[in-house]
Amino acid sequence: MTTVEHGEVFGALADPTRRQVLDLLAARGEASATAIAAQMPVSRPAVIKHLAVLDRAGLVEARRRGREVLYTVRPGPLDSASRWLAGVASEWDERLAALKRLAEDR
Q1: CATH number for the segment(s) 3-105
Q2: With contact defined as beta carbons under 8 Å apart, do 59 and 12 qualify?
Q3: 3-state SS of the chain?
């Protein structure tokens, strides 16, 4: 995953409503925008807009069942972003350990 794609994921996750939508979908497995909106303090059109952002970031997948569109969480982009963050954390841990060694040697 590229830095731009990570930016899309982090941008989508920056909004608390979108995180709540992801949490609901993770708990239910799949749900329609109507079912999600019924459990949230926002309208169905607002939920659809949030789902569109999550879809562009690759975090949800939509499938049509009759007249209904059902959404599910796609964990791949979250896993990739998590691995990237772990790598950044590891680099900083190494840098901080090197600084600590320098400070202790003086």
Answers
A1: 1.10.10.10
A2: yes
A3: CCHHHHHHHHHHHCCHHHHHHHHHHHHHCCEEHHHHHHCCCCCHHHHHHHHHHHHHCCCEEEEEECCEEEEEECCHHHHHHHHHHHHHHHHHHHHHHHHHHHHHHC
Cα separation, 77 vs 87, whole angstroms: 15
Q: How far is CA 37 from the centre of its chain?
A: 19
Is the model's pLDDT at 4 over the cut of 60? no
Q: Where are the domains positioned within the chain? A: 3-105
* Radius of gyration of the CA atoms of the chain, in A: 19
Among the residue ranges 15-24, 30-39, 63-72, 73-82, the one predicted with the least confidence is 73-82
